[in-house]
Write a structure and sequence with these properties.
two-stranded antiparallel ribbon; single chain; 21% strand; Rossmann fold; 7 helices; alpha/beta; five-stranded parallel beta sheet; 186 residues
Length: 186
């Protein structure tokens, strides 16, 4: 399969025997929990990008107002390149457009109702500014739009993540997708 990047140059997307999956969405949509569950059920390796950014200091500092680190995208991509080439990864991060298209075979955008999302962020102790910013992103479907602009439409899937039942259903859907992917690449 081939696609194009922002300069309309063809990009060859590898046909890996073991796929890479991106789980993305607004903070609080359940990315990490869902990714961990998918890893447990499928045997794929969970890559928590936020934890890597902090542990390896792949940032340019800290923004107090938004209670977040300023990501150094180049350092992050360099750090993950070899890992992603292997395949078999579930990448968990709140943004998607920074990653090369060739890395992923499936992009899952988790969504949550605003009331559910607000409660989750409040329980995490997010400051008011961070909650407002993230709520606006979810309402405006920023992550979903970025995924559609950054990846081929057939690999982008939007899933609701409001309840434990939703998460379990999402994990089962990914497992079924992975089983079909493995069968096609056997």
């Amino acid at each position: 399969m081939s696609a194009s990047d922002s300069d309309d140059q063809p990009i060859e997307i590898p046909d890996r025997p073991i796929p890479n999956i991106l789980v993305t969405g607004t903070p609080g949509t359940g990315k990490t929990t869902t990714s961990e569950l998918i890893a447990q059920v499928t045997g794929l390796q969970h890559v928590n990008v936020g934890a890597i950014v902090k542990a390896k200091q792949l940032h340019e500092g800290y923004l107090e107002e938004f209670d977040t680190h300023v990501l150094d995208e180049d350092k992050l991509i360099d750090e993950l390149e070899d890992t992603m080439t292997e395949g078999g990864k579930i990448v968990d991060f709140h943004t998607c457009e920074i990653f090369p298209e060739r890395w992923f075979d499936l992009v899952i955008v988790l969504r949550a109702d605003t009331a559910t999302l607000y409660d989750r962020m409040e329980k995490r102790g997010y400051n008011k500014r961070k909650i407002e910013e993230n709520m606006e992103c979810e309402i405006m479907q920023i992550v979903l739009e970025n995924a559609h602009e950054s990846y081929e439409p057939e690999i982008v899937v939007e899933l609701q993540s409001n309840t434990v039942d939703d998460m379990e259903s999402n994990v089962e859907r990914v497992k079924q997708w992975l089983d079909a992917y493995r069968a096609r690449h056997a």
